[in-house]
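Quick look at the format.
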Amino acid sequence: MKSILFVLGLGLLLVSCEKFLQETPTGSLTTDATITSAQGGLALTIGPYRSLGNWTDGGDQWGKNLAASLEYATGKAYSQYMGSILWVYESNSIAGDYDYFINQWNNWYRGVRDCNNSISMLPNVTGLTADTKSKYLGEVRALRAFYYFCLVRYYGDVPYNTEVLTDVAQASKPRSSLKSIYDKIIIPDLEYAVNQSTLADAPSTDGRITKYSARAILADVYLTMAGYPYQEVNAGTDTTKCITGNWTMKEYPVNTASSKDLLQKAKTQLDMLYGKYTLGNYDDLHNPAMNNKGEAIFQAQFASGLRGNGMVQTCLPLASQISLNDENGTFVPSMSYQNSYLSTDKRVQDRQYFFTSDTKSTRYDANEGPAAKFPMPFLYKFYDQSSIKKTGSSGLNWSFYRYADILLMLTEVNWTLNSLGVAQSPADIAKGINEIRTRAMVPTYGASDVTLKSIMAERAYELLFENKMIWDMRRTRMALKDGMGSFAAIEPLVGHQPSNFNYQFSAKHLLSPVSGTEIDNNKLCQQNFGWAPVQKGN
């Protein structure tokens, strides 16, 4: 069986996000094809971006959304509609045969496959200069690293593949150690993009990878590797922990030579990005005119009427009649999470991160009179005015990294190094988090005020529902306990019980269940500890 690669039209010229998304497929392309033109090389480079847009895809029921599932796992979400199956998380009934886990696995591995195909073919495109080949390979290798980064954070050990598959049987592989995936794929790919490729060392203005976006991913990778589960796997010889659940380490920061080295490497990348972007206002976060601008660093690209962002409708109150499109009410921060903000925080003021009322859509009221008051605050953070009131299709990009994240990572890295005996100046420890807090109009911190709890809390406040918390909880193995006006405490993830859950997290919740489809189709793939379905006979 020949490996098939979907590519964008060979006439593609990426002059804007909209132009990017307007291109239509011209057919299928096998790795036996000969591509020699510069346009063909560009198409090979653009093709692997397609899986990024699946981040906000729906599921097999109305109201489902993949991004929502990453928040459901934290215990800090609410849904008005049962079909989104938040209740399955709340009752500890999730399993790998739910589409949330199957679709994520398939989307990220499709991205890996697209990248592998392009990496194998780009060196042979004679119509490209050496510099252009290097640039394109930098983009595609950074994308492959990002897809694998998502896979190992979600599932732990995963099948290792950097080659083009030519037979379906080659897809049946055992899971490789997450350490191998980091050490042999993710880090080399990103270090190539940052240190060797001819990518522009500048912000991206069109959604494509530059060295700045590669640096952001690389810094996050280093910071994650300085925590869990990488440090526990790196510390011993047991390669079966994902399957046995024999996780024992829980202290964070992790005081090892490896962790300190990785934190220093993260700091290098973050220092290079510091000051290269500016924080705008909160309206920028839901304004499509600010796509790839302002504090945006790396985003999935959407365009109204072409490929819309399906997340917007999930944030709106269920059947509230405020939108031309559906209103799902399935992507909502829980009230206990919302109550953990300081009441004077600008982010919780009306029409900053949340809103409690709106006008009716012309679909229901030609005069756009007031809609019924909402039963609780809903997310305004992703409120695309044009989509909701005029077009029914959102062109709002989804951010994987923005400058606020860089600032908070910088504070965490500097604080962590200092805590581990690698001295950092008080100014360096506090500067990142204080830029965030200044915009939020809450009191700033002195270096002595900065703790793991204050860092994780600020990440929870600022990066609310941007799919950061699940990774923060897993890499630190710590969780925030909801409170009034602040988070009440930070405590070990194992043993933590979210406000709306009826059980405590256990060792199995340090990872997610492997896709049930993968378990069925790949008999060499074993399930993560504690999860179903398992291989038959196990």
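Next, a different chain entirely:
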Amino acid sequence: MNGQAFGQPPDTVSDVRPVAAIAVAPLGFTRRFKLLDWLQLKEQEPGWQRGTRKGHSQAPRVRSTVHPEGDRGGEGHGSSAPQAGPAEQGVASSGAESRVSSAASDSDSAARAPRKGRRRRRARRGKSPQAAGKQTSPSGQQAAPQASIRRPEPAESSPKPQRSQRNAARGDARRRGAPPPEAGQGEEPLYGALDLGTNNCRLLIARRSRDGFKVVDAFSRIVRLGEGLTASGRLSDEAMDRAVEALRICADKMRRRHVTRARLIATEACRIAGNGAEFIARVKRETGLVLEIVSNEDEARLAVAGCAPLLDRECASALVFDIGGGSTELIWVRHPANKDGRQQRPHIEDWTSLSCGVVTLAERHGGIEVSAELYDRMVAEVSERIAPFFARLQAARGEEGEGSFHLLGTSGTVTTIAGVHLGLPRYDRNQVDGIWITPADVHRVTRDLLALDYDTRAAHPCVGRERADLVLAGCAIFEAIALAWPAQRLRVADRGLREGILLSLMEADSARPRRRRRRRRGGKRASGEHSA
């Protein structure tokens, strides 16, 4: 009020009532300034004096006090207040002092009103457990709504997610950007099986599944590692170069697929070659692969393990043969009787390994131009090698009927014959693996291939140029086997050593005892607690 403070108490009651009304009965924003104008006029009257300490202390309280009841009837305490006479001045003086002191205490409680407003706003925003209900005055009476000008509330930001929610979101993002299943994270480990034979280099990468395994990647290439081995007794430099190049590809595939367990084997060519050990060392040095030269017996067992799902359980026995590049394995398998309603594994009763394969037989007799007479000589040579094993089995079988066994062939020769028999426009493993054919079908296909020259055989989609000079040597080996064991049926298997390696690795891992974690309570194992 122009820098002037309130003076001493007025002489009349009429002059006191507006002052008490300002302190006791808070007013609205507009009415407050009307009263201030009235007080400014009253200061110019003779009865108002400037100066007491009490008046100075009351001025700020009058200005800053806003009572919740300011909207109700505050205007009646304005300039229309009645005037009092001089006789009432003493009474008014003492009454004014008491009313001003009570106004000071009421203004203190009114100054705390904005805090209640803040609590209400927090309650509405959910930051306080107190409900945004009506407040009561210290006297127990219900307080009226706040009538002062509210400060602008800060914009409410979206609540931050809880820590667990943020961690879950990060986990979802990591899962969306996780490495592929081949990395072996969160899934079954990958197994690798490599078979380096006299003619082929084959790789199979798979993971365990409910019905055996699921193939993830595969590789096959004809390398002719045993080329010229029969004449020289050593692996040639060209053949070793071809094999190392294919093995580099296999090593790269296994690294990219993150193969955890693998078995890499080498067969007949490395077994009989004079420089087989040197070649194994070179492979390790240049590719990082450690090849294992397996024995004939291991090779026979792996072949049976890979083909076992295709054995006919209705037959008492079967002859499994694997026509390779440098050797041919013959395995006589018997099916034990079921025990407790469960099928037993096939039992190998006898086996042999013939030191002749498609590569060695074709090098001795020729494979490009093959006449009927040359073909018969190859059949005769193989039959001569089979005779000792056949006699041994005959003595063990006795008078067993012809319908009690079947043939099961696993080799490139057998699958090629099946593809030609089906007339496939190109070789399809899904149509060949597991098919049943008869020895008469094989004889017919062999005669058809003999009637073709080398270029025509190489142009056949199921033969190709890489097998054109070897397929007839394989047919001669198969015909010798069919002559010794004239079965009614032959089952074709496009599987063998690699599948046997994978199944043996998975079976070995399943048989390993697994450590069980003991549950701990409070960081220590409770007494009497046992593992599940």
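The CA atoms of residues 18 and 503 lie 104 Å apart.

See the schema section for token definitions.
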